[in-house]
Design a protein that fits this description.
The complex is a heterodimer of chains A (229) and B (396). With 229 residues, chain A is an alpha/beta fold. Chain A has helices at residues 59-65, 88-96, 109-119, 158-169, 182-185, 191-204, and strands spanning 7-8, 15-18, 25-29, 42-45, 48-53, 78-82, 101-106, 125-129, 146-151, 170-181, 208-214, 222-228. Classes of the chains: A alpha/beta (229), B mainly alpha (396). The A-B interface holds A 101, 109-114, 116-117, 120, 123-129, 136, 139-145, 167-169 and B 1, 30, 60, 80-81, 86, 89-93, 108-110, 112-113, 115-117, 119-121, 123-124, 127, 254-255, 350, 352.
């Protein structure tokens, strides 16, 4: 078998790629060697494990493949992750912010239970059972302001969730990456209207829109939005 | 995470109560507040504060402010977000340093991870009651749907039999396939090779059998329209049943991962439903689990001296169903023991050992097969005699 030629991503720290630009594959270096989270493929190379990062399973991978200019993740970034689910994307972020920290909030007990099991040896993930719409609920666990809020919650009030969490926990100048799904808000409205309304609410709360990227081809109906506080 | 800290408006320290870095104390503290009890640490602090002439303060936890107002002379205002408290918490390390509490970044991180995990687990075991109700309702509904499909199918076989009596349950055993044939193909003239191969995947033998029988059928020409509608109804019940089964599977995997890995979601759910909750199942001894769902048979055997039943719900497990009759008792004892362990793991811990338990069961089954290859003719009689003796003793 020919091993893929894995090399660092030209722009993003701790993100790796293989293949040509049309068939680019993404990887992160496994921080928790010997463990996989969602059955992802692992490539062994020079004592390192590279976990294949599936853009159909993880919207952040989709954003990168769709040409995001920045993902605001450095080795020491502190991140608040809303909608952590069972740990698919958060585990890749954990690989990237190898000396940083991620507070992972999830409302579903079942999912969080899975997440805890999957990531208990990853020191940089703090699991939090809570409702992202009431960020005060988990204030006893968040002991540091965060550089980035990553929000992927299946909840109608995307803008409100982002605004409330940013107010309590995000540094001045900190960034938000969030996803708006056209159907998740009100099924009767047209997708365009939905995006517009949510974006307006965000702008009115003094959050600046930096970039918008559709990841429709990977996650149907989803728009990724980058914001700044 | 570190302790209870009191600050004044100018962010200068007033008083504090350390948790001494003991994670259990911290978890207990939040547990108590959650259950509406004022933790001891807090009462102590309040006493000291009142000695110093304070009588009013702000907290950012609504439970806590209620508790304080109810249980003391203090006026505790609930304010969120309170910028002062928020900035204290978000600079935790520096903040507590002002009180002389030394703690490293690493220690804080470890504590918050442990606390996060513990709070989540605590709430999970408390909340598992929510799943119980869902599991019971879904399991009972699935049971009824299955019975309904059987009942409806018996009827449709008879009705359609007027037209194509040769398509018996010997050829098409599966009720759903039978209804599909009626719905999609309908009239026996349409039972051609192309039609059948297009929508179904029968083995060659069955395929030829159906075609031959359809060509030589003795059935009558009748209007099939209503029968086909009836078949559609059965198929739509079936499709709902599959959907419900998938949902149940997901819930069971979350609520009782060990039990579900061991015996599957359907049997697992039936066990839960028959006793009322995961908790109750986790408390039962293996010998009772073995008989769950066989209560009727057990009762009958007590009344009429019939042979006492060896298996209840767990009899539906493929490993017992497919076993030789003289192995079944042993396997069901073995399995109910493991079920009891799995349920305890599911309710009292977070460990995932279902695969291991299943492996152990399968290994032991192989052993049983090896040890007892032949039916135990004599010993069976013996045991019957024995039990008769016992009974006659009782009668005396
Ligand atoms: C699409 S999934 C997230 C997938 C995850 N980001 C990943 O890629 O691995 C959305 C998650 O949001 C969670 N969620 C929904 N409402 C929430 C709320 N109010 N607070 C926190 N999480 C919520 C759901 O339970 C679900 O796990």
């Amino acid at each position: 078998m020919i091993l893929p030629n894995i090399r660092p991503h030209p722009k993003f720290v701790n993100v790796f790629i293989s293949g040509s630009s049309e068939k680019l594959k993404l990887y992160t270096k496994n921080l928790d060697k010997g463990n996989v989270i969602y059955g992802e493929k692992i490539i062994l190379k020079m004592d390192e494990e590279f976990r294949l990062w599936d853009p159909y399973r993880s919207k952040l991978a989709a954003l990168i493949l769709k040409g995001a200019q920045k993902i605001y993740l450095e080795r020491k970034t502190t991140c608040l992750y809303l909608g952590a689910s069972t740990g698919t994307t958060i585990s890749h972020i954990s690989d990237i912010v190898s000396n940083g920290l991620i507070f992972g909030v999830e409302i579903s007990e079942r999912s969080l239970r899975q997440l805890i099991q999957n990531t208990t040896s990853r020191k940089n993930i703090i699991p939090i059972l809570g409702n992202a719409l009431n960020p005060q609920e988990y204030s006893m666990l968040i002991y540091k302001p965060v550089d980035l809020i990553y929000q992927d919650v299946s909840h109608p009030e995307q803008a409100n969730i982002a605004i409330r969490n940013a107010k309590l926990y995000l540094k001045e100048g900190g960034k938000i990456i969030l996803f708006i799904k056209s159907q998740s808000i009100k099924s009767t409205e047209k997708p365009k209207e939905i995006f517009k309304n949510e974006l307006n609410t965000l702008k009115n709360a003094d959050l600046k829109v930096l970039e918008k990227i559709s990841i429709d081809s990977y996650a149907g109906g989803h728009l990724g939005v980058f914001l700044e506080k | 995470m570190v302790g209870i800290f009191i600050i004044d408006e100018l962010e200068s320290p007033i008083n504090f109560q350390d948790f001494d870095g003991e994670i259990n104390k911290i978890i207990e503290f939040y547990g108590l507040i959650g259950e509406n009890n004022l933790p001891q640490e807090f009462t102590k602090l309040l006493e000291e504060l009142s000695e110093n002439g304070y009588n009013e303060f702000i907290v950012d936890n609504s439970n806590l402010s209620n508790l304080i107002n109810q249980n003391s002379n203090f006026n505790a205002k609930h304010e969120v977000p309170c910028p002062l408290i928020q900035s204290f918490k978000l600079n935790l390390r520096n903040s507590v340093n002002k009180y002389g509490v030394q703690i490293t970044e690493e220690q804080i991180r470890e504590r918050s991870k442990k606390l996060g995990e513990s709070l989540a687990k605590k709430s999970i075991s408390r909340a598992s009651g929510k799943d119980d109700i869902l599991i019971i309702q879904m399991s009972n509904t699935l049971d009824l749907l299955k019975k309904t499909i059987n009942l409806f199918s018996t009827r449709i076989r008879e009705w359609y039999g007027l037209h194509f009596p040769e398509l018996t349950d010997k050829i098409i055993e599966d009720h759903v396939v039978f209804s599909k044939l009626i719905s999609i193909i309908g009239s026996r003239e349409n039972f051609t090779k192309e039609n059948l191969q297009d929508k179904f995947s029968f083995k060659d033998y069955t395929l030829n059998e159906i075609i031959t029988q359809s060509q030589n059928s003795m059935g009558a020409e009748i209007d099939l329209d209503n029968i086909q509608k009836y078949a559609d109804l059965i198929l739509s019940i079936e499709s709902y049943r599959t959907r419900l089964e998938n949902d149940l599977d997901e819930i069971m995997n979350g609520a009782t991962p060990n039990l579900t890995t061991l015996v599957g979601a359907l049997i697992g759910a039936k066990l839960v439903a028959s006793v009322g909750s995961i908790k109750k199942l986790a408390m039962l001894p293996a010998s009772t689990i073995q008989l769950l769902g066989a209560e009727r048979a057990l009762f009958r055997s007590l009344k009429s001296n019939a042979k006492s039943p060896k298996h209840g719900i767990i009899f539906q497990w493929h490993g017992i169903r497919s076993a030789k009759p003289w192995h079944r008792g042993k396997i069901s004892r073995l399995l109910s023991g493991k079920i009891s362990i799995a349920a305890k793991l599911d309710y009292f811990s977070d460990k995932l050992l279902g695969d291991q338990l299943l492996n152990e069961v399968n290994q032991k089954i192989e052993e049983i097969k090896r040890k007892y290859p032949n039916p135990p003719k004599k010993s069976q009689k013996k045991s019957q005699n024995l039990s008769q003796k016992k009974r006659s003793k009782k009668r005396r």
